[in-house]
Design brief:
single chain, Rossmann fold, 6 strands, binds adenosine-5'-triphosphate
């Protein structure tokens, strides 16, 4: 099948992720898009992250109801940094008949040349780049074996997980920026709240 792989920290999943994935699914005629939740994103090391089981559960709630979407635990189950090249190699070995598409936002394209073995990533999957406000990148030269890049344009969505985390820490609303079930999960588990200030 034509399989889209969409990696991220998903801390938390939001409408930008879902719209990106759905538009790529349609534009590239993908049979499935797997949301691959990174255990330890190499480019965000040292930053605090929500426990992976919460991020996985929010991703599951976010994709629920779309038969073209699923959540992959492949990186959550692996210890150490979640290198995309390892993930792609594993999926290719397990599913030799599949054609792989690697979905990224424009800000990730900027970073891609600094990732581990970007040439190998581009040789194993077609990289599908989606516009993101504030991110303009040159198309990197990823060597002779790179598959051609594909580009999908979506209505620009200025939602980011970091902005959502700030809003929640300030007690502001994120309604409609995440699926309602994700918002309810965040609320129920008290995620992204700053600890109350010490009382005198
Ligand atoms: P943070 O703000 O914490 O960095 P994020 O919102 O960028 O998080 P990630 O989980 O790091 O979310 O992103 C996963 C992928 O989704 C990346 O390839 C990123 O470029 C893409 N992406 C996230 N939000 C958007 C958006 N609003 N528009 C386009 N692409 C997006």
């Amino acid at each position: 099948m034509r399989l889209g792989l969409f990696g991220g920290t998903f801390d938390p999943i939001h409408v930008g992720h879902l719209i990106l994935a759905e538009q790529c699914r349609e534009a590239c005629s993908l049979d499935q898009v797997w949301f691959v939740v990174a255990n330890e994103p190499p480019h965000k090391r040292g930053l605090k992250r929500t426990a992976v089981h919460h991020r996985l559960e929010m991703a599951r709630l976010g994709v629920a109801g779309n038969p073209g979407f699923a959540v992959s635990e492949i990186e959550a189950e692996r210890t150490g940094p979640s290198y995309s090249v390892d993930t792609l190699a594993q999926i290719r070995a397990e599913r030799p008949g599949d054609e792989l598409f690697f979905l990224i936002g424009g800000d990730s394209l900027v970073d891609l040349p600094t990732w581990r073995e970007p040439e190998r990533i581009a040789s194993m999957a077609s990289i599908v780049v989606v516009n993101r406000p504030g991110a303009e990148a040159e198309i990197p030269d990823l060597g002779p074996d790179a598959r051609p890049f594909e580009f999908v344009t979506i209505p620009p969505i200025g939602v980011s997980s970091s902005d959502l985390r700030s809003r929640l820490a300030e007690g502001r609303s994120i309604r409609y920026m995440v699926p309602s079930a994700v918002g309810a999960y965040i609320e129920a588990h008290g995620l992204y709240r700053t600890p109350p200030p010490p009382t005198a």
